[in-house]
Each structure stands twice: as C-alpha cells, then as structure tokens.
Amino acid sequence: MTITLILVIATVAISIPAFSNQELFYKLDLQPYMIQARKEYHRFITHAFLHADWGHLGINMYVLFTFGRLVEDGFSYHFGDRWMLYFSMLYLGGILFSTLPGFSRNKNNPSYHAVGASGAVSAIVYSFILMEPFQPLGLIIFPFLKLPAFVFGLLYLAAEVYLDRQGGSRIAHSAHYFGGIFGLIFTFILKPDFLFRIFQ
After folding, report:
1. Which residues contact 10 (CB under 8 A, 6 or more apart)?
2. What is the CATH number of the domain that holds 95?
3. Which residues are registered as beta bridge partners of 25?
4. Residue span of the structural domain in which 149 resides
5. pLDDT in tens, 146-174
6. Rounded distance between C-alpha atoms, residue 149 and residue 15, angstroms
7. Which of 120, 129, 171 is nearest to 152 (CA)?
8. Whether 91 contacts 117, CB under 8 Å
9. Which pLDDT tens digit goes with each residue over 36-62?
10. Cα 100–76–143 angle (5° rounding)?
11. Pairing state of beta strands 147-148 and 136-137?
12. What is the pLDDT, as a whole number, of residue 175?
C-alpha cells in the first residue's frame, strides 16, 4: 500500500464521520485562536484530515491520489531508500507551512475555522511540477485545455495570490499558494537539478 493511498484512506475515514459530528469537527479543525489561547497545537495537523463537504473532500482526494502516486514514483527513482521519508516530510511540511497565513491573520479571531488538505495537496502538485515541468496539465473542468506544467503552475499561483488579496471568500487561497511554494522549495532543496530542467 502506498503512502498516498494511506493518506487518502485516513482523510476519508476522518472527514466523513466529522460531516455529521460537530463535536469531532470542532475538536480537530484549524482554530488559530484556540491554538494561541489553549496551546492546542494538534490543530495544525488534524485540520488537514477534515473537509467541509463531499465536494471539498472529493476534489482534494482525487488530486492527491493522481499526483501523489506520480511524486512517489519520482521520489523513489531519484532518492532511493529515502523516498518515503522525503515524501512524508513533503506532505507534513505542506500542511504546516500552508497554515502560516491563516494562523498569523486570525490568532485573535475566535470565529475563524479552516479545514482541508489543500495546502498539502498543493505541495504535492508543485513538487511534481518541478520534477516534470513540461508535462501537460489542465483543469478538471477543462480537460481539453492543457499547458506545460510550469506554465500552469505559475498561472495558478498568480490566480490564488490575486483571489487571496481580493478577499470575501470562504476559501483559504493563501493555504493553496503557501503549500505550493513549500512544495517547490522543499523539492528544490532535495535536488536543485530539477530547476534547471526548465531552461534546458
């Protein structure tokens, strides 16, 4: 069983019961105020195994399952016996790094809640983009429109930064691009040669 499949199963197993169990949901979600006031540091991690609804869960798990297996293959090829450790660090780091904006902005806001694996999933996707910058990628809703992975990645980051600055949305856009940035940086640190593939 792959790490990706384990993560998908664990996320589904926690998210689905929490859909109908508010007590469980609010014990595990990201609440910066509760972290600040009560030192409930587990929330930095556990929120990534919760999702707001079936659509949120389905999209994240589809993307994780699709790209996670590709990144596992790439890490296994390039890093040998260390690939499982590095892959786990990539996912965990994506979870933690993507919480930084939300925590910083809302640590004194008791009404702020956030859930989802989007930051970690973005880290996985952008790790893949750095390893395979010319692989064609497209959106699920526009499968016929494909761009080289590095172009898609730049456009997606720009869109998320723009939407984050616009505000007025329940979506934590900052978690998406912070997770993606972490995935790029972490993978580059592991193997700087990946970056130069773009210029070859």
Report:
1. 49
2. 1.20.1540.10
3. none
4. 3-199
5. 888 888 889 888 888 887 787 655 567 78
6. 30
7. 129
8. no
9. 999 999 999 999 999 999 999 999 999
10. 70
11. antiparallel
12. 87
Condensed to tens digits (0 to 9), the pLDDT of residues 64-120 reads 999 999 999 999 999 999 999 999 999 999 999 999 999 999 999 999 999 999 999
Whether 121 contacts 52, CB under 8 Å: no
Claim: this prediction has a pTM higher than 0.90: yes
Query: What are the angstrom distances between the C-alpha of 10 and each of 17, 24, 127?
Result: 12, 15, 22
Site of tokens 């930095």: 44
Q: Contact at 8 Å (CB) between 158 and 152?
A: no
Report how many domains make up the chain.
Answer: 1
114, β-bridge pairs = 30
| Residue in the block written with tokens 């989007």 | 118
3-state secondary structure string across the chain: CCHHHHHHHHHHHHHHHHHCCHHHHHHHCECHHHHHHHCCCCHHHHHHHCCCCHHHHHHHHHHHHHHHHHHHHHHHHHHHHHHHHHHHHHHHHHHHHHCHHHHHHHCCCCCCCECCCHHHHHHHHHHHHHHCCCCEECCCCCCCCCEEHHHHHHHHHHHHHHHHHHCCCCCCHHHHHHHHHHHHHHHHHHCCHHHHHHHC
